[in-house]
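Problem: given the chain below (324 residues), write out its structure.
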Amino acid sequence: MINFLKFSIGIIIFQITMLSEFALCAIEPTRPEITFASKIEFSRKNKILFADVVSMKGATRELILTLEKLMLFENKNSEFKEQVISNTTLSRQIKEIAKNNEVLQITNPIFRIPTTVTFTPVQEDILSNDEIRNRLSLRFSMECPSCSFAFSKQNKIDQISGNWELDYSNIHIKPSLLLPLVGSSYKSFRWLSIKVSVKDLIPVATTDLPFGKLVESDDFRLEERTIGSLSERFSNIENLTSFKIIQPIKAGEPILPKMVKREPSIHKGELVKGILGNDNFEIQGLFISEEDGFKGEKIKVKSTEHNKQLSALVLTKELVRIQE
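Solution.
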């Protein structure tokens, strides 16, 4: 059963059995999503921030940095007790914060909150695995939005005096991390060692690809695989068909950026076929390329019959579409 509760300020709450989903203002497409799990383990520190306990999709850099500053609740006098908070209470708290937060108003994220959220203090350590996963995933998503991550702590910190925080500010994706844990005094300084596993969709050869071959769309498929670094992924896989193999690749092997070199589909001075028109009427002619051009890019060409310069879209090798 779905109940729609509408408020005068334009907030809509969707109550779906065990899940509450609401937006801060009128619903729009493609907005960030912020999700609370039904059970969350929190670190033994005084201030618990939103970024410590939520996961996100489609987050902007500004929104991530904002959630890293917003306090969800405070453990006064270092009393670390289990808390059960209803979605109604959390929703009310978020709306109050949003009234004075420009980033939340502009990004207008969707919040997904179970009927109740149980916050439990970590028992055998002072650092919650949930916090480390959430905070690092948020930070790393700014570098690689399509990647997924897994983390494992390599050492345990069972106590530290005074208030403390992990410093996530200057980190980048790599196989191992050392995070500084800063307490209220210099004597409280610690290091947390973390192993990082990164997965992303990468192109894998469907057949043997010899040296010098121009990559075609049926030469590869996309598979989610573990990568050692961001240098092993393409920033835009759609452009892979404009690359040439410079290192032979066996079927089933990943195609890495170091194994290919971007090759223009058309070179300056080449004779190319140009198409002009639409689905109903089309004419063709010969043109001379005025510059190198990759598939999908616009280049300048000249007709072989006159010297007028025209703009053309590169379709394939030796084929362009004249732009009217």
